[in-house]
Amino acid sequence: MSSLPADTGDTAPTDEADALWQRLLAEVAALPGLPGVYRYFDAQGGVLYVGKARNLKKRVSSYFHKNHGGTRIGHMVSKIVRIETTAVRSEAEALLLENNLIKTLNPKFNILFRDDKSYPYLKFASHEFPRMAYYRGSVDKKHRYFGPYPSAWAVKESIQLLQKVFRLRTCEDTVFNHRTRPCLLYQIKRCSGPCVRAPESANYAEDVANAERFLLGETDEVMAQLQQRMMEHAEKLEYEQAAEIRNQIGALSRVLHQQTMESDASSAFDKDADILAVVVQGGRACVNLAMVRGGRHLGDRPYFPTHVDDAAALNAAEDEAFSEALSADEAAERATARPIEVQVLEAFIGQHYLDAAVPPLLIANHPIDRALLEALSDQAGFKVGAVHQPREQRRQWLEMAERNAKLKLAQLLAEEGSQQARTRALVDALDLPVENLETFRIECFDISHTAGEATQASCVVFEQHKMQSSQYRRYNIDGITPGDDYAAMRQVLTRRYAKLAEAAPGGRERLPDLVLVDGGRGQVSMAREVFEELGIDLSLIVGVEKGEGRKVGLEELVFADGREKVYLGHDSAALMLVAQIRDEAHRFAITGMRARRASVRTGGSKLEDIPGVGPKKRAKLLQRFGGVRGVAAASVDDLAGVDGISAELAEEIYRALH
User: Fold this and answer.
1) Which of 478-487, 628-637, 639-648 is the least confident region?
2) Secondary structure of residue 138 in the 3-state scheme
3) 144-146 and 385-387 strand pairing
4) How big is the chain by its Cα radius of gyration, in Å?
5) Same domain? 134 vs 242
6) Of the given ranges (15-24, 476-485, 506-515, 587-596), which has the lowest mean pLDDT?
7) Are 298 and 292 in contact (CB under 8 A)?
8) Is residue 84 in some structural domain?
9) Rounded Cα distance, 152 and 643, in Å
10) In which band, very low, low, confident or very high, does the pLDDT at 83 lie, cut at 50, 70 and 90?
């Protein structure tokens, strides 16, 4: 192995860099020839890359055996200061560990998918008369769940379908237990009225069983059983009951006729499947996931990964380097099996199904690696198969998924082009010295209170051409005269930027390129005083002043560094962006203020005293039930239906509030 330094520039490496390189070479030489996972770290401790290997020593050595020059792999290698490896028993285990680490560590050079596992389910709650409900969250074994569904709409559409055919209840237990007469749903024949033991609910348990079998795709069996029941009633001259079942059969027949996406195959293997279509264009990728459950096509959902360009360039350079360590057959197989679409598909499958239910069949528009299917099968406990050149019904599913992927990707590229144009328009309008629009960062502040009560400030962040909600912050404002917005702005700006102003320029956190404050000259003057005290460039501050009559589109920009006010024009792309950011800051401030005010007025802090209930869960509970009184009136099952609230925590909340 060569001892070339990691530095790929023209200058000679320092003694420190040479020592680092020699240490890395020694670590690589000591690696075992076993399957495993490797991680590269930079000087700040950030994760650069996570990879898997059949042979750790051969794979990691491929990065260090020669100088990669100015390629992406050379750029990454020049940043490596630490290597971590984990040896495992098989390549399947390496795949699972690799994707687990990618999701946890968010490395800079891997293809990353947003961790969105909040799929909705259709729930049959355990009860003498089970209730159908839309559900998100962790599952409880005492209830029955069907799904997951790709969208809330798909669940609600299924509930409406089952109401029409099987007339099952959807009301909360608190409502069900106190009914003295049937509700409107009974009158319009969407419920059989089990709350008042209506005659139509005599076979409620059988209707629930048939609904569950229908969701499992056993439609022929359900139709046969309904017809048998109808004939039995007719033979006993029970014509009214026979007519009810006849109507039920008619409704079910219409539903089945409308389900044009229903599978023609009778195999149970086809009743549950996921269709995966990958499209890559313009440096972006889309994976469109469509779900088939019980033979019914439930809809689709697009996913857009990040770091596609970096990962593609890195993998190409990596494959070229690693091919020298492979046999001719292995190198040829890898070269033909690793286009960017395959890389995106494998990254999605590994990250998406890592902790989510996988169906027995995956239908994709590109081949799926056997080792990946083996890993999924080991995790699921049953064999997971894959088809990438399907026929008949499967082919129609895949063609539709691929067409939708192309449409969603084209829409995304158009939106991103528009967003970039707005960012460029604002930078040009304000004549800002910005070299890279991708890193252009705006922070915007707003103050909200009700007659001085529960004053709260918001800070929202715009970066990479979109709002970054994960970086939003709220600040409770105390120690000021109630209603003094200027003092509130002084406090929030000081708290936000005092530490950043003292930090080293190369630190992880940096000052924004633009600071927007919602207000005119008064708020800008206050921001100017704070920035002067902290020694921060005044040209960063821009106030958004309401126009004549406070009409939208007439806003003017006020500067802290003495420049004249600027009116961008009501149809200006730059003003549209400023208005969007300002409105988001206002929305974020006012929702926080209302929650704080409600806490003060209703004693909502009692919820926060319950172990396991933090601000996020408390906010979800208050939003779901309309306040603390609503939470206190909810049953344990109702509480457990809130996203993030487990059955145990629901019982703890119920005990604490009663």
Assistant:
1) 628-637
2) coil
3) unpaired
4) 30
5) yes
6) 506-515
7) yes
8) yes
9) 14
10) very high
CATH number where 637 lies: 1.10.150.20
pTM of the model: 0.64
Cα angle, residue 106 at apex, residues 388 and 353 outer, rounded to 5°? 35
Q: Which amino acid type is present at position 53? A: A
Q: Is the pLDDT of residue 640 over 90?
A: no
| Backbone region of residue 119 per phi and psi (left: phi > 0; alpha: psi in -120 to 50; beta: other values) | beta
Residues 87 and 225 both lie in one domain:
no
Q: What is residue 519's DSSP assignment?
A: S
How far is Cα 575 from Cα 426, in angstroms, rounded to an integer?
7
pLDDT of 4 strictly over 60 = no
Mean local confidence (pLDDT), 296-325? 72
Phi, psi at 237, each rounded to 5°: 65, 25
Report whether 565 contacts 558 (CB < 8 A): yes
Rounded CA-CA distance 496/444 in Å is: 11
Q: How far apart are CA 505 and CA 328, in angstroms?
A: 49
Sheet holding 144-146, edge to edge: 132-135, 121-124, 144-146
Residue 51 phi/psi, 5-degree rounding, is -140, 165
Question: Is there a single domain that holds both residue 592 and residue 621?
Answer: no
Tell me 152's DSSP state: H
Residue 497 in tokens: 């930027």
CA angle 606, 610, 616 (to 5 degrees): 85
More confident residue, 382 or 509: 382
DSSP 164-219: HHH----S-HHHHTT-SS--HHHHTTS---GGGT-GGGGGHHHHHHHHHHHHTT-H
Residue 607, burial from CB neighbour count under 10 angstroms (0-12, 13-18, 19+): buried
- Residues 151, 42 share a domain: no
- What is the spatial distance between Cα 455 and Cα 446, in angstroms, rounded to a whole number? 11
The mean pLDDT of the chain is: 81
Name residue, tokens 């829409």: 411
DSSP letter (8 states) at residue 54: S
Q: Is residue 463 situated within a structural domain?
A: yes
Look at the chain and report how many structural domains it folds into.
Answer: 5
Cis geometry, peptide bond prior to residue 148 (ω within 30 degrees of 0): yes
Amino acid at position 612, single letter: G
Instruction: Provide the CATH number for the domain around residue 90.
Output: 3.40.1440.10
Residue span of the structural domain in which 54 resides: 15-105
Token pair of 346 as six digits? 């494998």
Of all residues in the chain, the percent with pLDDT exceeding 70 is 84
Give the pLDDT of residue 508.
52
